[in-house]
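Q&A log
Question type: sequence-to-structure
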Amino acid sequence: MRAAAGSAPGTLFALLAELGRRLGVPRLSMGMTADFEIAIELGATDIRIGTALFGARAQVV
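Response status: OK
Response body:
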C-alpha cells in the first residue's frame, strides 16, 4: 500500500497495521520509495523501493 497524495502516510500505515494485527495477517505490504521508512517503523514486512534502486520511470506520452 502506498499513501495517497496529500495524505499522511503514517496515519494510514498505522491503521493498516492495526487492522492486520486484529485479523492475524502475518505480512504487511505497505510503503514505497517515498515513505518506506515510516512503513517499516509501523510494521511493514514488505516494501517496494524500485524507484530508489532503478530510478524514475520514463514518462510515456
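Response note: The chain has a mean pLDDT of 91.
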